[in-house]
Amino acid sequence: MLVISEDLKTFNHIHPEDLGIITEEIKTKAEFPLPYTFRKAGRYTILVDYAVRWKSFSQQFFVEVAGSPAMEPPDTRSTREQQIDGYTIKLSAPEKITSRKEVVLSYSIEKDGRPIENLEPYLAASMHLAVIRADLGRFIHTHGELPIT
User: Fold this and answer.
1) Would strands 11-13 and 114-115 be described as parallel, antiparallel, or unpaired?
2) pTM (2 decimals)?
């Protein structure tokens, strides 16, 4: 499950097994409880990826969260570099991206100008990528692979 806020500042990726054991009863009922606390009021999209008999599916739902504080309007300025908690994350992509054509995206993570070399897979993947329209109307969630060296 992915939770993404309309202001594009919240992105959470949760697997049911991250929160406890998946019992036979849960599997039989096909009901996977995922407790979650929304930190700000506003509109969120909930994206659910699942598989049945080795076939993958995705569903999207919207929720309106009441209360305060309210989220700010989204900042949709395009940037390929972010500073987060002392780390610099850089996205590499072609200047021009064309619809319906495969593109290779990559990223690097640095701290104090030096590459981070001890990264570990997160939720069984070396990279998680979500591409979502600014209006939260459509999305893609995929996993990247480590480059062959």
Assistant:
1) unpaired
2) 0.71
